[in-house]
Amino acid sequence: MINENYRQMLQEKSVIRELSEYAAARGKEIGQDNVFDYSLGNPSVPCPQGYTDALTQMLMNKDPMDIHGYSPSLGIESVRRAVADSLNRRFAMDYDSKHIFMACGAAGALAHAFRCVTRPGDEILIFAPYFPEYGPYISHTGAVLKVVPADTENFQINFAALEEMMSQKVMAVLINTPNNPSGIVYNTETIEKLADFLSTKQKEYGHDIFLISDEPYREIVFKGEDSPYVSKFYDNSISCYSFSKSLSLPGERIGYVAVNPRCRDADIIAVMCGQISRGIGHNCPPSSVQLAVAEVLDQTSDLSVYETNRNLLYDALTAMGFHVVKPGGTFYIFPKALEEDAKTFCMKAKQYDLILVPSDNFGVRGYFRMAYCIDMEKVKRSIPVLERFVREQYP
Question: What is the pTM of this model?
Answer without folding.
Answer: 0.95
